[in-house]
Amino acid sequence: MFSTHPIRVVPRDPVLFLDPDVQRGEPLLTICSWCMKVRLPNQGWVELEEVVNYLDILGSGMVPSLTHGVCRECQGDIEKELKILK
Questions:
Q1: How far apart are CA 55 and CA 75, in angstroms?
Q2: What mean pLDDT is predicted for residues 12-29?
Q3: How many helices (H) and strands (E) are present in the chain, helices listed first?
Q4: How far apart are CA 70 and CA 45, in angstroms?
Q5: Of 31, 42, 26, 37, nearest in space to 67 by CA
Q6: What is the pTM of this model?
Q7: Region label for 67, one of left (φ > 0), alpha (ψ between -120 and 50) or beta (otherwise)
Q8: Angle 80-66-18 from CA coordinates, rounded to 5°
Q9: How sure is the predictor about 76, in pLDDT bands with cuts at 50, 70 and 90?
């Protein structure tokens, strides 16, 4: 059995980028399910706020579609935790 619980909560202002009711378009971006960083082509994993500015989401009105994954840093942390649990 696998269960999760937060070890800390970091308050953030609401971000249109994460609103599930917003109409979405291209491109399709991958967001880390653990830390919420977003993978940008040729830039790697960057903070959510940087993506909003980079893509000019507030100015353009078009919010990209999202798919979920896990960034390399979080993947490494998860693998370490799983080894400890064995």
A1: 26
A2: 79
A3: 3, 4
A4: 10
A5: 31
A6: 0.69
A7: beta
A8: 90
A9: very high
User: Would you state the structure tokens that stand for residue 60, as one six-digit string?
Assistant: 């353009």
The percent helix, strand, coil of the chain (3-state, each to 5) is 35, 25, 40
Sheet holding 44-46, edge to edge: 44-46, 38-40, 24-32, 63-69
Count of Cβ atoms closer than 10 Å to residue 37 Cβ: 19
Q: How many residues does the chain have?
A: 86
Residue 73 near residue 36, CB atoms below 8 Å? no
What is the residue type of 38? V
